[in-house]
Amino acid sequence: MTKLRLGPVIEDKSVKLTVELPGALLRELADYGRVHARLHGLSDPLPPERLIPPMIERFIAGDREFGKLRRRT
Length: 73
Fold this sequence. Notes:
By secondary structure, the chain is an all-alpha fold. Helices cover 55% and strands 0% of the residues. It has three helices and no strands. It has helices spanning 23-39, 48-61, 64-72. It is globular and about 45 Å long.
């Protein structure tokens, strides 16, 4: 089975943030949500606003240079 970079999404206390996304990116997120739901056995895909936070967390966690610079300060 193919693995997506994003695993199961865990509920957490959230903070409201407003962002503007290009239409093409929103469509990509919707497509990603459908694939993610299918691979994780969800009946409905998660909406983009639920996918974006764990994607950003994963991006930051995987940025080695950021981690090195962060530890220096």
